[in-house]
Amino acid sequence: MNSKQPELVIRGGYVVDGLGNEPKQADIAISHGKISEVGHIEATGQAELNADGLTVTPGFIDLHTHLDAQIGWDQNLTPVSWHGVTTALMGNCGVTFAPCKPTDRELLAGMMETVEDIPRQSILTGLP
Fold it and tell me: In this structure, what DSSP letter does residue 80 have?
């Protein structure tokens, strides 16, 4: 591999920059797991995706989630991660499992079972 060769080039998508600008058609190069260039990219990527006619966006942030229990048994937070969410805030309803004292496990599991209708055993199984 050429050290300047991107790992991935996404070609021809309508790029939303997250800054409120109008989407523009461009290529995106990914090098070392990060966006390294946006624009017309001459280099060939190790892998390439054709995004012609598609929209390419930065990851979304979900500011209000009810994922506090789910993170214990599903670290990928499916299905929200399938929908482009790359960052999720938790504990914003005043209930969280981190940190969770061993003496509070049953109380929190019971509360979430009542409030979120998540089975108590699922919560207890997922708690560290």
Answer: G
Q: Domain spanning 8-57: which CATH class is it, in words? A: mainly beta
Beta bridge partners of 38: 28
Query: Residue 118: helix, strand or coil by DSSP?
Result: coil
Q: Residues 18, 57: contact at Cβ < 8 Å?
A: yes
Amino acid identity for residue 84 in this structure: G
pLDDT tens track for 24-47 = 999 999 999 999 999 999 999 999
Indicate where the chain has its CATH 2.30.40.10 domain(s): 8-57
Tell me how far apart the alpha carbons of residues 127 and 23 are, in angstroms, rounded to a whole number.
42
Are the C-beta atoms of residues 43 and 70 closer than 8 Å to each other?
A: no
- What's the whole-number average pLDDT of the chain? 87
pLDDT above 80 (res 52): yes
Beta strand pairing call for 85-88 and 60-62:
parallel
